[in-house]
Amino acid sequence: QVQLEESGGGLVQPGGSLRLSCAASGIIFSLHPVAWYRQGPGKQRELVAHITFIGTPTYADSVKGRFTISSDNAKNTVYLQMNSLKPEDTAVYYCNTLGEYWGKGTLVTVSS
């Protein structure tokens, strides 16, 4: 039974920071690529960041230099550190692995 659970979302002012977590059960994250997606109000879901099983990260242009994806194998958890947040970062953030397993999402709201 594969389960992913995101946490760490919330309300933050522009320029602030949040760290999202995606904890997995029933699967070993370190053996698979893991991605963060987001879907803003009225928008399509988009890929935000991705990390391979060897730890190589990639980022959407819109978040490069601000977001960092990382993993803690001992905790079977992948993180998304988000700095210098902008209102356009407001979205529900989801983690995904193997292209078929999704968490339920965590809401990030960036607003004054």
Give a structural overview:
This protein is mainly beta and 112 residues long. It has strands spanning 3-7, 10-12, 18-25, 34-39, 46-51, 57-59, 67-72, 77-82, 91-97, 101-102, 106-110. The strands form two sheets. Strands 2, 4, 5, 6, 9, 10 and 11 form a seven-stranded mixed sheet that branches. It has a four-stranded antiparallel sheet with strand order 1-3-8-7, with no helix packed on it. 29% of the residues are buried. The mean pLDDT is 95.
Q: What brief labels describe this structure?
A:
112 residues; four-stranded antiparallel β-sheet; 0% helix; 11 strands; mainly beta
Radius of gyration from the alpha-carbon trace, in angstroms? 13 Å
Low-confidence runs: none
Return the average pLDDT rounded to an integer.
95
Largest sheet: 7 strands, mixed
How large is the count of helical segments?
Answer: 0
Write the H/E string, N to C: EEEEEEEEEEE
**Secondary structure tally: strands:** 11
Structural class of the secondary elements? mainly beta
Distance between the termini: 40 Å
Strand content of the residues, in percent? over 45%
Name the overall outline: globular
DSSP helix fraction:
under 10%
Give the arrangement of secondary structure elements.
Layout: E1 3-7, E2 10-12, E3 18-25, E4 34-39, E5 46-51, E6 57-59, E7 67-72, E8 77-82, E9 91-97, E10 101-102, E11 106-110
Parallel strand pairs: 2-11
Antiparallel strand pairs: 1-3, 3-8, 4-5, 4-9, 5-6, 7-8, 9-10, 9-11
